[in-house]
Structures are given as structure tokens and as C-alpha cells.
Amino acid sequence: MNVPQKPDRAGNAPLPPNPPEPALGRTHRWGLGAFFFAQAIFVLVSVTLAAALGSPDGMAMVLMLVLPTVLAGAVAVVITLVRGNGPRLDFGLEWHWSDVTTGLAIGGIGLVTTTIASMLWIRWMGPGDGQSTVSSLLDGVQLPPALAVVIFLHIWLVAPLCEELLYRGLLWGAMERLRWSQLNVFVLSTAVFAIGHLEPNRTALLLVIAIPIGVARMVTGRLTASVVAHQVNNFLPALGLLLISLGLLPT
């Protein structure tokens, strides 16, 4: 109960008590449906391009690799702007040196474990079954240098950002809105990341790849660290595909 205040000596009415300060932080209004919508955009665009382009080469191949991922990532950003507070607040997608260094450190550890796991996986499954969708698409294809560099930059830098916006952005935030524990959010987002690549033969390997990326998101609470960790993890595969598509390495 507010205690009534007496007028001051000049006879002026007392000022009303200060209103309470607004609560820090704002909640978003999107949930799991937002993630499924963005994922559906990725699948729909991928299937449409595959049906329209058939066996692509050159620019058509670049379009098939880049457009679905970039559109899905853009949809994730738009959802946060329309139904939330933007990617900076909703995802923690902002520049912090601590997040960058954490992402580099965890990503470096993940790169080692991923490389070992990939070598064991290929030895177990065989080169053909161990290939990713991108590797299969570029198998035996020699690209002009400019297009090869575009694919390299996409796999190394752009695709990790877009995938993080989906899995450890939209999906992670939707589960947090349901008040799931951070451990449950980490486990489920890691599983969905592995399954969502639609590569059944590599799902177990993708689980190994996703663990350090999810750890970076969990320990910092922000998306920047997981983006950096994902980009570190993708560097060697992207470099290998660059050299293969330029004809500098055998398939």
C-alpha cells in the first residue's frame, strides 16, 4: 500500500510514486511451428529445384546447394522480427569476443573428433555410403574456379550460420519457451539436427558432429558461439570439396 504524501511547503501537489521498472528481457511469440515452417521451406525449395533442374552442372548446381539453405535461414530471421524481438535478442546473435573464442576452442576440439569419427565411419561404411549429399552431388564434377570458391564459402561460412538459425535458434528457442531444461533442449536439438539433414546413412556421424556445436550454444547461452564452432567444423570438408571440384584432389 502506498503511503499518502503531504504537499510541499509551496503548496504543490506531491508527485506520484515512480512506476515500477519494466522487467528485463522480452519473450518471443513463436514456437515449434516456426521451426517446422522454416524446415518445410528448405525441403520444398530443395525438392522443387531438384525436379526442375534434373542433373545440374555449373551455376544450377550452386543454386541447388545455396538457395534452400539461405532461404530457410532468412525465414528464421523474419520470424524473429515478426513474432519476436529479432535475432540479436531472441538468439543472442551478437558479437562477443568471449563467444568467438569459446566457439573456436570447442569447434577445434569438435574438428578433431569429427575428423576421427569420419575416418572410422568411411572405413566402416565404405566411401560411397559415407559421402554427404553435397559430396555426392559434386562427385566427378569439375567446376570453374569462381563457382568452386562460392561453394567453398557457402559450406564453410554461410551454411553453418543458416543451419544454426534453424536448429539452435528457432528450435532451441521454441523448446526454451516450453520451459524445457537446457539438457533436454541440447539433446533434442542435436538429434533433430542429425535427422534433419535427411542423410539416413550418416545420421549417427552427424550426431557426433552436432554435439560440440550444441555444447557451444549451451555453455554460452548465445548463438554466436555455436555458429563459430560450426564454421570451424566445416572448414576442412569445405576445403576438401574445393580442391576436388577444382580437380586438384581425386574424388
TrEMBL record:
Residue intervals of the CAAX prenyl protease 2/Lysostaphin resistance protein A-like domain: 147-236
Keywords, sorted A to Z: Membrane, Transmembrane, Transmembrane helix
GO biological process, one term: CAAX-box protein maturation
Secretion signal span: none
Record-linked InterPro entries: Rce1/LyrA-like_dom (IPR003675)
GO terms of molecular function: endopeptidase activity
Stated name of the protein: CAAX prenyl protease 2/Lysostaphin resistance protein A-like domain-containing protein
Lineage: Bacteria, Bacillati, Actinomycetota, Actinomycetes, Pseudonocardiales
